[in-house]
Amino acid sequence: MASSSWRRTLGNVRSFVGNALGGLRGRANLASWAVAGTLAYFLWVKPAQELKREQEEKAAMAAASDPYRYIEKRKPIPDPQETGLIYGKRNETKKSDN
Question: Closest by alpha carbon to 37, among 29, 25, 19?
Fold first, then answer.
């Protein structure tokens, strides 16, 4: 009796997955996934990769065209003020009049 229970559960899971995938079986299911994957690649993935490549090429051309461009080579020194602001008044401790 226990073996039929898990078989029924497995059958229900397979049925659910099959229905969730569109109810197609075998070659039709595989073909539909192949078409959907191909469309997704050509409509979303490939254009995004090409745009990224173009932006990188444009940035490389801009960097190569200006050899005297300033490039930061050191890490910035942390600001010693308590407020963390570069400009402005420092937080000074108040002295008591005793």
Answer: 29
pLDDT at position 66, please?
76
User: What's this model's pTM, rounded to 2 decimal places?
Assistant: 0.42
pLDDT in tens, 16-50: 877 776 766 778 778 888 999 999 999 999 999 99
SS3 assignment, position 95: coil
Pair 66, 74: CB distance under 8 Å = no
Q: DSSP letters along 27-89, please?
A: HHHHHHHHHHHHHHIIIIIHHHHHHHHHHHHHHHHHHHH-TT-----SPPPPP-SSS--SSS-
CB 82 within 8 A of CB 91: yes
